[in-house]
Every structure is written in C-alpha cells, then in structure tokens.
Specification:
By secondary structure, this protein is mostly beta strands. It has two domains: 318 residues, TolB, C-terminal domain (Neuraminidase, 6 Propeller), CATH 2.120.10.30; 112 residues, Sandwich (Immunoglobulin-like), CATH 2.60.40. The chain is globular, with a radius of gyration of 24 Å.
Length: 468
C-alpha cells in the first residue's frame, strides 16, 4: 500500500529527565565549540558542514513576534538559509559529502516535490527534480557521487522509487528491477535501505529483504534504519508489545548475519540513530542523551560522561554524527535552551596552562519608571560575570585576554572580551532588554603569549535569571 508523504523532520525531546551512564570508551575529554545559539542539528558531513534548523525572530524582538524555525547549513563559519518557494516549507533530509542538500518542498498537505539545494560557491540554489508523472515526490538521500534517491507517489495508488543525477536527471528505479517501494537512506558508496529491502545502487542483483527481526521485536522498516558501505544496519525496532511506544536500538552486522541489541527497550522519544559509521559505530540519542556505541560490538556509552567537568549543568542531548576530524555535532542544553555545538576531544594541558574559574555571575533588573517591575520595552537588565584566571598551581595570572559569549533564552549571542588584572580577575558585562529568560555566559578562550587554555578543568559557564 502506498502512503502520503510525511516529511521526516527530527524533533528532539527537550526537558528529558536526564540520567547518564559513565563512559570508559575514551580517555579523551570533550569540550564545546558553540556553532549557533539557537539551532539544532540534522546531520554533518566529513568536511564538517552541518545541516540543521535555526530559530530566529523575524521582527527582531522576541517579545513582539513568534519565532520561525528554518533549515540552514553551517559551513566555513557561516549559517546559510535554504531557499524555498511561496507558501511552501523546506524540509531537508540529507547532506552530501560535498555539501549538496536533498529533501522536499511541501505545504504539509497535498503539495510535496523533491528538490536539491546545490552549493554555488556563495549560497544554495534550489532545483526541482520532478514527479515521474505522479502527484508528489520526495528526495531522501544522497551518496558520495551525488546520486540522489527518493520516491514519487500518488497516495494509495502508486509508488515509484527514483535516482537522480545532474547528468541523467530522474530515473524510475522500478523499471530497472528494484522494488517499487520507498528508499530512505543511502551509504556513501551507494547501499540503499528501502521500506522492506536493501540493495546497491547500479546492481539490481543485490536486492534482498531486510533481515528478520530479533525475538520480541517487529520487522524493521527502512525509514527507521541507517546503512553503511558494508551493508550493516542500525536503527530503532518496535517491540511486539501491544503498545508501540517502546523500542530498542539495534545493530545488524552483515559479516556475522546477526542483530545486536544496543541496550534495553525504552520509550521511543528517548531513542534515535543519527549515524552509522563505516566500522559499524552507532551515534545518536539514548540513555537520556547523546550516545556512541563503538563498532563492531560495543554497547552504547553516554557522551555526557566524557564532557569536561568545566561545563556545569550542560546536557548533551544528541549527536548528529562526526566529521573527518572526529568532532561530534551535538545538540546541547546550555542555560535551559538547546544550542548547536561541536564536541571536540581535548587532552589535559601540561606545562604553562591557563585555567578559568570560578565564575561569579550577578544581575540587576532596571524597571521602566512608568511600570515598575513589569516587562515593558523600556525595562532593562544588566549582567556581570567575574572570572578568575590562574595557572595549574592556582597562581593568579594577569594580562590574560578572556573571551566569552552571553546567551539568553531567545536571540542573544553577544561576544564579550576583557583582560585580567594583577589578581587574575576580569569582569565581563552585558546590558540589554529585560525579561529574556536565563542569561548564560560561556567562556570560549583565554589567551596569553606562550600559554595554553585548559578547558578540561575549571568553570566555563554560569547562568542567572534577572528578576524584578
């Protein structure tokens, strides 16, 4: 049976009751590089380009309008919006190694059409792929050769899988011997997972059914699975219990022809596989936050256990994958709001090392004289953070340039800098409109000639709520 297109827009479950499993998988410590103050990731490619969603306030004032959540790509230090068409929403699905984005434009009703966003060198250009004579279409994946997979359909009538290339255009895969079902994912070298099958693009003889499920679980569907170049699979399988709200993360190893259970069955909103690497390492969310299950047989470990203790009250919600440098792209809670960041391996510093902390943060609410204690446009808030910088032995360090970033629960993303005095202290200040929720300072750098900044210890973030 064919079904209407339902765009697969991943929504993270915020406000989880977080609990963490300590990780012994790596001796390294993870530190954070902020990418965007109000965003969440979908995927990352080897070059470090990030596909995700960015939240903005079109009127420029969070108290005067509702936010918009729009798809974007972060590359080379820039965030680039994906263009759309009038009355249609952009719903990206995948990112190629070169930075091409594939997905669809939709009104979330009867109108849906497969598109690609091609990188022009300065921006993204939109191109429609076609419908194969049917009513709707969607692009779902792209490989290293920029072969785009997807499907066209007339709901409840007909489905045609397709491959698209810039040279050959749109081709119906069902007339080439492939199943007439929806393809969902494709590996870098062209292994495809579809509704009930998998195959290698360009070779119809490789078509095979998805492996039978392990005991206690329902048959897997292509929409819930990832696939790598070895034909390994990973995803969340539903239990056979009467309720469909429980699932278990699993990995299929093609070499051994076996499923591996990656932890116990949990509520579905706590689980998700975002990436399956070449060695069968699984990345995603589970155990209440971002996880990594080392391939080919490791069990899930919470990345929270590897996060530097210098980041207090910061939660790693999920990882969208890693780039070629091994940097995780993560959704983090920092100051009660979800941020987009990279989690980067850092070894403890030795020798001439700068440590930041403790941080002392305070705030003042300045009322509108005409409406004391009220959140009017004339109400203001001031926030000050005093940071102390020392060497590894605890000796204060003067003339250290400290760079931080003030963030609030809306659009604030203010860079601040200062230099420490002879007591090793620096004050970093923010002044702005009041009633913007929690205000957080994130310390990003401490620099002094011939010294190194150690982010594996100390205190690198602090928050306050300026109240009337």
């Amino acid at each position: 049976m064919s079904h209407p297109i339902t765009p697969a827009l991943t929504r993270l479950a915020y406000g989880l009751s977080l609990f963490w499993c300590a990780s012994a998988a790596s001796a390294q410590t993870l530190v954070l590089d902020l990418v965007d103050a109000n965003a969440s990731p979908i995927s990352v490619n080897a070059q470090g380009h990030i596909l995700g969603y960015q939240q903005t306030w079109p009127c420029g004032n969070p108290t005067q309008c509702a936010p918009e959540t729009l798809p974007a790509v972060w590359r080379d230090g820039q965030s680039l919006r994906l263009p759309t068409q009038a009355s249609l929403y952009a719903a990206p699905a995948a990112l190629s190694p070169s930075g091409m984005v594939v997905g669809l434009l939709t009104d979330y009703g009867s109108n849906a059409k497969a598109v690609v966003w091609q990188w022009t060198g300065t921006s993204y250009a939109l191109q429609e792929l076609g419908l194969l004579g049917l009513a709707q279409s969607a692009a779902t994946g792209v490989d290293a050769q920029e072969r785009v997979i997807g499907y066209a359909l007339t709901p409840f009538v007909s489905t045609k899988p397709f491959v698209w290339t810039a040279a050959s255009g749109l081709t119906d895969l069902s007339v080439q011997g492939y199943p007439a079902s929806r393809p969902w994912r494709i590996s870098p070298q062209g292994w495809v997972v579809a509704d009930e099958h998998r195959y290698r693009l360009g070779d119809p003889s490789t078509v095979s059914s998805l492996p039978a499920p392990p005991t206690g679980y329902r048959a897997p569907t292509g929409q819930s699975l990832r696939i790598n170049d070895s034909g390994d699979l990973a995803g969340v399988l539903l239990t056979t219990a009467s309720s469909s709200s429980l699932g278990g993360m699993h990995r299929w190893l093609e070499a051994s022809q076996q499923w591996q259970a990656l932890g116990a069955a949990l509520p579905l909103h706590n689980l998700g596989v975002s990436s399956l690497e070449a060695d069968a390492t699984v990345l995603g969310s589970g155990l209440g936050g971002a996880i990594l299950a080392q391939g080919p047989s490791g069990q899930p470990q919470a990345l929270q256990g590897q996060l530097s203790p210098a980041y207090s009250s910061v939660g790693l919600l999920s990882t969208a994958g890693r780039d070629a440098q091994g940097r995780h792209v993560v959704a983090v809670t920092l100051g009660t709001v979800t941020r987009l960041a990279r989690a980067v391996d850092a070894a403890p510093c030795t020798g001439a090392c700068l440590r930041v902390g403790p941080l002392s943060i305070s705030s003042t609410f300045i009322s509108d004289p005409a409406a004391p204690g009220s959140c009017t446009p004339k109400a203001r808030q001031k926030v000050q953070t005093v940071a102390t910088v020392t060497d590894a032995a605890g000796n204060p360090q003067a003339a250290v340039t400290v760079k931080g970033r003030y963030l609030d629960s809306y659009g604030l993303n203010q860079t601040v800098t200062g230099k420490t005095n002879t007591q090793g202290k620096v004050t970093l200040s923010h002044s702005g409109p009041a009633c913007r929720g929690t205000v957080t300072l994130l310390v990003e750098a401490a620099t002094k000639k011939q010294w190194r900044f150690d982010r594996t210890v100390g205190s690198l973030n602090a928050s306050v709520i300026p109240l009337p």
